[in-house]
C-alpha cells in the first residue's frame, strides 16, 4: 500500500515538473518575442513560418524558372566579355588605323534659311567597323541587336558635324540608337539625328541663283593615323527619300566626296562631305516681285497721255508709283541677309525705280517749259504798240486751262503737210506809226510753241528703253 502511494506521488511530481517546465519555456519564448519586437527584428516564430513557406514553394511542382536579369552580369555582357577589355581605347590600339565605313540615308531637308545662311537636315547615320573584342561564339551565325544602353559601355567612333550650329539625336520614345554585333566582331552602329549646319550662299544672282551646300562629317579625336574614315559604298553610300521637296528650291543633285582636313595643332583628319545642289523656283518671285515692279513702271507711262496742264492727275500718279516701288524694294530686302554686294533682283528693282522716277522728272520738265513759253508769249504781246488789227488771244491761253489741240484764230496755223499739228504759230505784227496814223511798215515775228514734244518722245523712248533693259537682264541672269 505504501508502495502504491509512493508511485502516485512520483507521478504527481513528474507531472508538476512538466507543467512548470512548460510554463517556464513559454515565459522565455514570450520574453524573447517581446524583446525582438522592441528591437525591430522578426520574431523567431515568423522566421520559422517564412522558412516553412519557402520550403513549400521549393517543391518540384511550384518551382519557378530563375530570373537571369537579376544576375550580376546579363547574358549578353557575359557573352561579349565587356568587362574583360578596356573599351576606352580604339580596336587595335597601337597598330594601323582602323577603317570605319559610313553610309547615310537622308530622311528630309527641313528648311533652308537665306537670312541665317544655314540648312536643317534629318538623316540616318550608320557606321561600320570591326572590333574583335566583341566577337562571340555562335552556332547559327546570327547577330545580336542592342539599343543605346550598350553603346555607353563599348568603343564607338567619335563623329561630329563640322560647321554645325545645332544637332540632336532623336529620343522619342527612346533614344533612336541601334547597335548590331556579328559573331566575328563586325559592328553596325546607327542613329537618327537632326543637324542644322552652315551653308555659305552666294546671292549675286538671287532669285535666279543655284546654291550648293554640304554637310561635313569628321572624327573629333582620331587622326588619319588612328581612324580611316571612308564612304562604305562610294557614291551609293548616300540614299535620299524620293518624297523630299522644298517650297522654294528644286533639289538637283546629291553626291559624296572625301577630303583631308588639316589642323595646325593636331594633324590631318579624314572628312566626309554630303553635297547637294539646290535651284530656286523663280515663279514665286515673278508673281511677288517682278510683275508688280513691271506694272508700276507701265503705270508711270500713263501720265504721258494725260494733258500736261492736268497737274492734279499727273503729279499724284507719279508719286504713287515711286512710293510703291520703294515698298517693293523694302519688302524684298527685309527677307534677305544684309550682304554687301548687289543682287540680281536689286538691279531689276532699282532700274525700274529709276524709270518711274524719270517719268516724274519728265512731267516736271514739261510743266516748266510750258510755263517759260507762256511767259515769253505774254512779253511779246505786251510789246505791241497797237494790236487792234490782230485778233485777241483766247483767255484760256493766259490762265493755263486750254487744251493743246485748240486752234487759235491767228493765221498760218497749218503745217507743211496740211495736218493740224500740236504746234501753234503765233504771228505778231510789229509796226511804227509816223504821225499820220498809217502803218508805213509792218513786220511779222513768228514764234513756235511745242506743246507735246517731250510727251510724244517719252511715249516711245521710255517703253523702248525698258524693253531693251528686260531683254539684256533676262539674257544674262536666266
From TrEMBL:
It is a multi-pass membrane protein. The chain crosses the membrane at residues 282-305, 317-335, 347-369, 457-476. Residues 35-69 are annotated as: Disordered. It catalyses: chloride(in) = chloride(out). Its main location: membrane. GO terms for cellular component: chloride channel complex; postsynaptic membrane. Residues 289-396 form the Neurotransmitter-gated ion-channel transmembrane domain. GO terms for molecular function: chloride channel activity; extracellular ligand-gated monoatomic ion channel activity; GABA-A receptor activity. The keyword Transmembrane applies. Keywords: Cell membrane, Chloride, Chloride channel, Disulfide bond, Glycoprotein, Ion channel, Ion transport, Membrane, Postsynaptic cell membrane, Signal, Synapse, Transmembrane, Transmembrane helix, Transport. It comes from the Eukaryota. Residues 1-21 form the signal peptide. Residues 46-56 have a biased composition (Basic and acidic residues). It is found in: Postsynaptic cell membrane. Residues 82-281 form the Neurotransmitter-gated ion-channel ligand-binding domain. PANTHER family: NEUROTRANSMITTER GATED ION CHANNEL (PTHR18945). Belongs to the ligand-gated ion channel (TC 1.A.9) family. Gamma-aminobutyric acid receptor (TC 1.A.9.5) subfamily. GABRR1 sub-subfamily. Three rho subunits (rho-1/GBRR1, rho-2/GBRR2 and rho-3/GBRR3) coassemble either to form functional homopentamers or heteropentamers. Rho-1/GBRR1 subunits can also associate with alpha-1/GBRA1 subunits to form a functional GABAAR. Interacts with SQSTM1. This is Gamma-aminobutyric acid receptor subunit rho-1.
Amino acid at each position: 500500500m505504501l508502495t502504491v502511494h509512493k508511485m502516485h506521488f512520483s507521478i504527481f511530481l513528474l507531472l508538476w515538473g512538466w507543467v512548470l517546465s512548460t510554463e517556464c519555456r513559454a515565459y522565455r519564448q514570450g520574453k524573447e518575442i517581446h524583446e525582438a519586437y522592441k528591437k525591430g527584428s522578426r520574431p523567431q516564430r515568423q522566421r520559422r513560418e517564412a522558412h516553412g513557406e519557402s520550403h513549400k514553394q521549393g517543391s518540384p511542382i511550384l518551382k519557378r524558372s530563375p530570373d537571369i536579369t537579376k544576375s550580376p552580369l546579363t547574358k549578353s555582357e557575359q557573352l561579349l566579355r565587356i568587362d574583360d577589355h578596356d573599351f576606352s581605347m580604339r580596336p587595335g590600339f597601337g597598330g594601323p588605323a582602323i577603317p570605319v565605313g559610313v553610309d547615310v540615308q537622308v530622311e528630309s531637308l527641313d528648311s533652308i534659311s537665306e537670312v541665317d545662311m544655314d540648312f536643317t537636315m534629318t538623316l540616318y547615320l550608320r557606321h561600320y567597323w570591326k572590333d574583335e573584342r566583341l566577337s562571340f561564339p555562335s552556332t547559327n551565325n546570327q547577330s545580336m541587336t542592342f539599343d543605346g544602353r550598350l553603346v555607353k559601355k563599348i568603343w564607338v567612333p567619335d563623329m561630329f558635324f563640322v560647321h554645325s550650329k545645332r544637332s540632336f539625336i532623336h529620343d522619342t520614345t527612346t533614344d533612336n540608337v541601334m547597335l548590331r554585333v556579328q559573331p566575328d566582331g563586325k559592328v553596325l552602329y546607327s542613329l537618327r539625328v537632326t543637324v542644322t549646319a552652315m551653308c555659305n550662299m552666294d546671292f549675286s544672282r538671287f532669285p535666279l541663283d543655284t546654291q550648293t551646300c554640304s554637310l561635313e562629317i569628321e572624327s573629333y579625336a582620331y587622326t588619319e593615323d588612328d581612324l580611316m574614315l571612308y564612304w562604305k559604298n562610294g557614291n551609293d553610300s548616300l540614299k535620299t527619300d524620293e518624297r523630299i521637296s522644298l517650297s522654294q528650291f528644286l533639289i538637283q543633285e546629291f553626291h559624296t566626296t572625301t577630303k583631308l582636313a588639316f589642323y595646325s595643332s593636331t594633324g590631318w583628319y579624314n572628312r566626309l562631305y554630303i553635297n547637294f545642289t539646290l535651284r530656286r523656283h523663280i515663279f514665286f518671285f515673278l508673281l511677288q516681285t517682278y510683275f508688280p515692279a513691271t506694272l508700276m513702271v507701265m503705270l508711270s507711262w500713263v501720265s504721258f497721255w494725260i494733258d500736261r496742264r492736268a497737274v492734279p492727275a499727273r503729279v499724284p500718279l507719279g508719286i504713287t508709283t515711286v512710293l510703291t516701288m520703294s515698298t517693293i524694294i523694302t519688302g524684298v530686302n527685309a527677307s534677305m541677309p544684309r550682304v554687301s554686294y548687289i543682287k540680281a533682283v536689286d538691279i531689276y528693282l532699282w532700274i525700274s525705280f529709276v524709270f518711274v522716277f524719270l517719268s516724274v522728272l519728265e512731267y516736271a520738265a514739261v510743266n516748266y517749259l510750258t510755263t517759260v513759253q507762256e511767259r515769253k508769249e505774254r512779253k511779246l504781246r505786251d510789246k505791241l504798240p497797237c494790236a487792234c488789227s490782230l485778233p485777241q488771244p483766247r483767255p484760256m491761253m493766259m490762265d493755263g486751262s486750254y487744251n493743246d489741240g485748240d486752234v487759235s484764230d491767228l493765221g498760218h496755223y497749218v503745217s507743211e503737210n496740211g495736218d493740224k499739228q500740236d504746234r501753234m504759230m503765233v504771228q505778231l505784227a510789229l509796226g511804227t506809226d509816223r504821225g499820220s496814223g498809217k502803218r508805213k511798215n509792218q513786220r511779222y515775228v513768228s514764234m513756235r510753241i511745242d506743246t507735246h514734244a517731250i510727251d510724244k518722245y517719252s511715249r516711245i523712248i521710255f517703253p523702248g528703253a525698258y524693253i531693251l533693259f528686260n531683254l539684256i537682264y533676262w539674257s544674262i541672269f536666266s
